[in-house]
Amino acid sequence: NRLFFCADLNEYFVPRKEIDNGKFIRNPENPSRLKLVLNYLQENFQAIQPFEFGEEHILKVHSEKYFNYLVKKSQEVEDEYLPEVFFVDQIFDTGTPIKKEIFFAAKRAVDIVLSATKYAFEQKVITYALTRPPGHHAMVNYGGGYCYFNNAAVAARYLEEKGMRVAVLDLDFHHGNGTQDIFYKDPNVLYVSIHGDPRKFYPWFSGYETECGEGNAYGTNLNIPLPENSDINAYGEALKKAIQKLKDFKPDALMISFGTDTHIKDPVGRFALLSEDYKTIGSSISNSLVIDYLIIVHEGGYNSRSNLVAVKNFLAGLLG
Ligand code: SP5
Ligand code: ZN
């Protein structure tokens, strides 16, 4: 088998509530959403043992100010703290509460993705990192969108420091504003994202097609927003553009930020991808790109059945 996985669902970390549309709702980012995927990976592929990495890896993408905020606030908090003033608290929404366990869980999620990345690099195999909390909304200075540390970005920087050109393809329903923020001025890391149009969907303040990168990194950021209810026809067209951009960049390593909240049955995302479409997506990627190192990082996806079937079909398409 060409695929190995590294997983930890951090089951002790369960955010309870968030504010959606002015009302308290149950926070959908919980461990049970990924349990079927974990079983599937365990039954079909070999596991990689996770290592503990130093905090310095996290500090290569996040500011000390934000890192220290998380440490301090998680030590002080009782129960669950929702940010009171966004951007004064180093958190920008109510999906991202602070609990005692959060620093440990967020650090562990980074370690899972770094372990999968190191293994892919050393063994030249494809690896899947299944963990939570997810990462792609976490910015240099702020957490948000259920994300505390940007798992994929820490791993992308780890590869970058080994001298590689790295591309991040973000297939979560939501724009990965955090990953974009972290690499916006970095010409060695390409960020490409297909997502719900931010004029209508979270994260609202970024994900527009006019955001292309800055300075000598201009052209290394590509946003492809799509309207509500986009199906595989629209999605396939977007994926073609994304793949062409990746080809032109010629990366040594590719990280896929894989969210299954693009599935029609996902309760948070608003696309209309069907289960079998994920095979098409997986095979389009592997048929058109030759890349030495490939790491898939799980992001969003809030229906445990669609998480399972999307991952299963995506890997079936990808591995051929
Ligand atoms: C990692 C990730 O997928 N984060 C997504 C964060 C989205 N948070 C805002 C969601 C608000 C959408 N409300 C949908 C109505 C469900 N009742
Ligand atoms: Zn998402």
UniProtKB/TrEMBL annotation:
<keyword id="KW-0378">Hydrolase</keyword>
<comment type="similarity">
    <text>Belongs to the histone deacetylase family.</text>
</comment>
<dbReference type="InterPro" id="IPR023801">
    <property type="entry name" value="His_deacetylse_dom"/>
</dbReference>
<dbReference type="InterPro" id="IPR000286">
    <property type="entry name" value="HDACs"/>
</dbReference>
<dbReference type="Pfam" id="PF00850">
    <property type="entry name" value="Hist_deacetyl"/>
</dbReference>
<dbReference type="InterPro" id="IPR023696">
    <property type="entry name" value="Ureohydrolase_dom_sf"/>
</dbReference>
<dbReference type="GO" id="GO:0004407">
    <property type="term" value="F:histone deacetylase activity"/>
</dbReference>
<keyword id="KW-0479">Metal-binding</keyword>
<dbReference type="GO" id="GO:0046872">
    <property type="term" value="F:metal ion binding"/>
</dbReference>
<dbReference type="GO" id="GO:0040029">
    <property type="term" value="P:epigenetic regulation of gene expression"/>
</dbReference>
<feature type="domain" description="Histone deacetylase">
    <location>
        <begin position="28"/>
        <end position="316"/>
    </location>
</feature>
<dbReference type="InterPro" id="IPR037138">
    <property type="entry name" value="His_deacetylse_dom_sf"/>
</dbReference>
<keyword id="KW-0862">Zinc</keyword>
<dbReference type="GO" id="GO:0016787">
    <property type="term" value="F:hydrolase activity"/>
</dbReference>
<protein>
    <submittedName>
        <fullName>Histone deacetylase</fullName>
    </submittedName>
</protein>
